Amino acid sequence: MIELLIKRAAWAVLVLFVVVSSVFFLANYIGDPASAILGAQATPAQREQYRRAHGLDRPLSEQYVKYLIGVAHGDLGKSLKDDQPVVEVLLQRLPRTALLGSMALFFELCIGLGFGIFAAVRRNTWVDTTVMSAAFVGVCLPSFVTGPFFLREIAFRLGWFPVGGYGRDALDHVYHAVLPALTLAIIGAATYARVMRSEMIEMLRADFVRTARAKGATATAVVLRHAARNALLPIVTMLGLSLPLIVTGAIITEKIYDWPGVGRLAIESIDALDLPMILGIVLLASMTVQVGNFLADISVAALDPRIRANAKS
């Protein structure tokens, strides 16, 4: 088990290095940050002065080595747009995206697993057909479609939730996050529903479920305690992989709902060609992906002894 975790951690560090290095060189060929930040009205002398002040006139290899040394010491540089430390800005924005993501994950699990179990129990009925049809539609609906629809129908027309923003206190933050979290959760909930239904149908045919029924277990106990419990192994794997999907999906969702998180910061940084901030966001997103994969590996290895045995061999 420990050997498996060490291998996964080493692989994660290598992936982070490759991703950050690739984005660093690609981002430097997109355009000129001085022109993007100062605007078209800036003179060539002003742009050149800006580049010298922020070290953008140095050779690209020198900038790259300097950036890697800074990352190794926990320094991601300063934003070219507002001259604030990238780490401080990310730490300020991250809790807001974490709140949105955790609520979206909660909605995904409650809606997806609940409807998946319900459809499996009512297999080949109109209930099953309706739930799976809705899940198929949900998988095909991106947030840039559902977001404006929810804004218009639920927030604006019905007035049940705020049109956008972050709120003023903790409860207000949660209240403002409900609608964007639901928007972010639709695709994940639909995917969980389809996977859970498939796993539940297989588990309900298993011998141990027949044995439980023969011993007089109630229908609720058979479904929840025996079948659903053993159907969660692929769900645990998906749960770890959902973290990066939520982070990337939040980029569009936060922009739609004017949510001041990392996602909206990413769009603002790309518009301004704020290279240090872009690299910081990419590094954060890459770490989230690796953490998600790492947690999925640990959870599956803990639940399935066969994986631990393969790792030892």
What share of the residues lie within helices? over 70%
Largest sheet: none
Question: What is the alpha-carbon Rg in Å?
Answer: 24 Å
Distance between the termini: 11 Å
In round numbers, the mean pLDDT is 81
Identify low-pLDDT runs: none
**Domains, number:** 2
CATH class of the largest domain: Mainly Alpha
Provide a count of the helices.
14
The helix-strand sequence is HHHHHHHHHHHHHH
* Structural class label: mainly alpha
Strand content: under 5%
Number of strands: 0
Give me the CATH fold name of the largest domain: MetI-like fold
> Outline, from the CA principal axes?
globular
CATH architecture of the largest domain: Orthogonal Bundle
Would you mind describing this structure in some detail?
This protein is mainly α and 313 residues long. It has two domains: 2-72, no CATH class; 88-312, Orthogonal Bundle (MetI-like fold), CATH 1.10.3720.10. The chain is built from 14 helices and no strands. The chain has helices spanning 2-27, 33-38, 44-53, 60-72, 86-121, 126-139, 143-157, 170-204, 207-214, 219-230, 233-256, 262-272, 275-303, 305-312. The longest helix is centred in the first third of the chain and has 36 residues, at 86-121. The termini are close together.
